[in-house]
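REQUEST ID: PR-0412
SUBMITTED BY: lab tech R.K.
PRIORITY: routine
TASK: structure prediction, single protein chain
INPUT:
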Amino acid sequence: MLRLICLVLALICSLPRIGAADIPVDIELVLAIDCSSSVDDEEFALQVAGMANAFRDPMIQEAIQNGVEGAIGVSIIQWSSERFQNVAVHWRLLTGPADAHNLANEIDAMPRTIGTGATSIANALLFAANSFNGNGMEGFRRVIDMSADGENNQGLDIHIARAQVLARGITINGLAIRNEFPNLDIYFEDRVIGGDRAFTEVAKDYEDYRNAIFRKLFRELRDVPVADGSGIDPSWAPSWKEARLIGRR
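STATUS: complete
OUTPUT:
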């Protein structure tokens, strides 16, 4: 009998402990970059530069450290049509300024892996949702940041994809780039975003993307009420002409 008990205990101890090794973080965040045919190389570069600069900002770095866990997880995907989604930056754990600077440098060096295609926000959402699986982190919140300059025009129905993602407890926030669609933020509000404290940030055009991605990240990390988000300004203020990337085209 004693031998049987010992065998059972040994078997139990040998079983994998699901989630035991997962690192607790305040938020698991997927940043999804639009690489469809409506986005030229300069506009892609503006997205990259804006995202990198945001993670270099002291306000963002402080927000990362001031969470309950003092840590966040970040991954970046590029997407266009229903079959084109790539992980451009795999999951990174950020616990302070050094990690944030390293991520910013990695973003700066990130090549464009998708050159053209339709706009399948729906399929990009499902790809992003699946990327949370097995990332080694356990966040208080899971959030997809969906950036796009157009409406879903290919692939799965946006309502079906949205419902599937929300059913997993994942929040979808939006960054609507109103470059060619003046009412794109309304489309995002109606058909894309959803979940706990979901919101849409607006960029007037690609040159305004840098300010918009900063506001969006800050609101997510600090849990700032939506009504207060528009007044948040980054700590840096050089013009976009000074911030353009050289040699990216």
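NOTES: The radius of gyration is 19 Å.
REVIEWED BY: pending
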